[in-house]
Specification:
Layout (H helix, E strand, L loop, with lengths): L1 H5 L4 H11 L2 H8 L6 H8 L4 E3 L14 E3 L2 E3 L3 E6 L10 H10 L4 E3 L7 H7 L4 E5 L5 H13 L4 E5 L9 H6 L9 H8 L2 H9 L22 H8 L6 H11 L3 E6 L2 H9 L4 E4 L13 H12 L4 E5 L5 H10 L3 E4 L1 H33 L12 E3 L1
Parallel strand pairs: 4-5, 4-11, 5-6, 6-7, 7-8, 8-9, 9-10, 10-11
Antiparallel strand pairs: 1-12, 2-3
Length: 384
Amino acid sequence: MFRRLRNCNNVEDMRLLAKQRLPGPIFHYIDGAADDEITYQRNSSAFDDCDLVPNVLAGVEDIDMSVTVMGKKLDMPVFCSPTALQRLFHHDGERAVANAAEKFGTMFGVSSLSTVSLAEIGALTDSPKLFQFYFHKDRGLNSAMVDRAKAAGFDALALTVDTITGGNRERDLHTGFTSPPRLTLKSLMSFAAHPGWAFNYFLRDAFELAELKDHVPEGSNVAVSVGDYFSSMLDQTMNWADAEDLRTKWGGPFCLKGVMSVTDAKRAADIGATAIMVSNHGGRQLDGSRSPFDQVAEIADAVGGQIEIILDGGIRRGTHVLKALAAGATACSGGRLYLYALAAAGQPGVERALSNMRAEIERDMRLLGVSNIAQLNRDMLRYR
């Protein structure tokens, strides 16, 4: 494992290693998106339409890539976005990602659909932690999750606002992916072809959605697709008043995840949100929508200085991060960039992914002629 991991120099290398390790349905859950996956592909390819213009003779011996996000200083301008079901990808799941994020001085986002409890993650690390909140029909569950996140010492809460219904994730339909995985002849054959994964899944602690299992059986004891979970369990009446009430109940740094329009960015600022995550859920919801990078400049022009802007999605290279920051983002976050690495090799894999990203950002800052993030600006960008 470690010899192969040492050969992983970028996100695509990690993706290929993850594909070897995981059963097909599990891999395609990470790798797939909605409908024709046009938006998913656009999330990364949008960066190709923008060129960097470097400056020289700038004196870049000392590099400071730190940023402040929701009141917390991060040692690098990209953090681990919240993602669900992590113990399906590696038996350590969120534990591995939390430890790796702490080692690199960055934030870890934990999903409502996490497979390790908030209390355990809170006790495990002292680094900045973000709790991602799904607004369920069960208001008692909503209140309980807020209270548990507070008790666990989480620093910020992000309400996901783009899952009012499940996206059409056709790869999951083709593979039959559910949480927990259904045992069928096809899935058992895939599990048997990946004995290492199967051993860890079946013989370690039972898979469950740690924060939801005591409230709803779906996802822990009753197999369900993520799309069906969103469509049946989340509250489709959720509105701006609910978001503002949640911000008040939380009482700390508050973020809306899934904002893509200037109108909604202004509304987020109006209700007192600390930050927005410009995100289309990794292309897994509305296919044909814009990429976060396509939108970040106009959102920054409208609300920059009033609210923090986190570009979430499509990040594969250090240059992607620098382009986003130059366009007006406060910081970036991503899921697949570390999920492939988690699946490939657990905590060492996530550490390798973050190390690769940090090295790319540092090298590219030197080549661009900037020694700190504040020096990035639109003059360094040209759009094709």
